[in-house]
Model the fold of this input.
Amino acid sequence: MEPEKLGFSTERLGRIRPQMQKFVDEGKLPGILTLIARQGEIVHHECVGLRDIPAGKPIEADTIFRIYSMTKPITTTALMMLIEEGRLRLTDPVCEYLPEFKEVQVAEQGEAGKVQLVPAVCPITVRHLLTHTSGLGYGENTNPLVGKLFAERVGPLWDGRGPDALRQFVAAIAGVPLYFHPGQAYHYGVSMDVIGRLVEVLSGIPFGTFLQQRIFDPLKMVDTGFSILPEKEDRLACMYGPVEAEEVTLSGSLKDIDPLEKSSYRFPDRLQGGGGGLLSSAPDYLRFCQMILNHGELDGQRLLGRKTVDLMGMNHLPDGIYLDGDTHSQGFGLGGYVLLNPAKAFANGSVGNWGWGGSANTFFWVDFQEQVIAMIMTQYQPFAQYPLEDMFKNLVYQAMI
Done:
């Protein structure tokens, strides 16, 4: 469909490709896919650069990406389906279903950095997990004791395999002290991996099986899962990172940091973590986003109720706590950020935008006001080294007429 019929300027959309190509030409990113849809129709879909640099294979419409933390909105959807069925409530203590969280401790830092372990003043609830206010993190050394114990107890299990991998992973998480008392702050971390285990326990089936049966199959997300099938390996984009300074002249500025022959994604029994384990393609993830934009339904398949999606898109952070610190432009809903004030944000948007990203610099958002879905996919770490997301947001909204 012509972009003008959906409220976009063809000429202005033409500004996207040169900016994405510049990232590729400068050796910053290997290849980039950009996609915009409005009212269920694709307005813009372009690919620049390569998915495999040595082989000269381009990024294509059906390229498969490691979406890392873009797993989290899908995990949230799974749990909200169980909440709709009356299996649990947002206010329920997690220890009612996962007893290992019954007596969690907090590593309080006192004078001169001294750390003291004290009992949590309240239990971790389901809402705390969904909003990253549980006190769980990713083992950052902002608290040296938590960082040390996380590295020792949880770190070795990131590459876990087998049917008990998620159970063992979450049990290890429960044995690490919290950064703060539940509900007192926002701290990004492994909360969504615990949600994945909750889904597993409450449904009685493996987490990955639940996602396949209840989300991927109904939405016809044919390329989304925790591992790559042999017949699809050629479509999986290589995962790139910067080379060391002395290597630049030999191999360019990028190197494959997850070679397929060594990648855990080849193992069907790899850890199925709710926080970041999925592979997906742009067409697949677009279908998930369209279901959200449609308030829970796509092509006759209803996954969530309309008011449940409304609830997911509201800011659930306690008063005075924001996702982005001093700018106060973003809150956090259930499964993704919520844009509260575009004027204070780093890029354009609409109040109520809901979305998230992954550590390989994949991003998406759903704009309920404008009925727009936008997505950008690449495969590069570290995260946010370049202003890719903010630039793309501005390019999307400047093209609206």
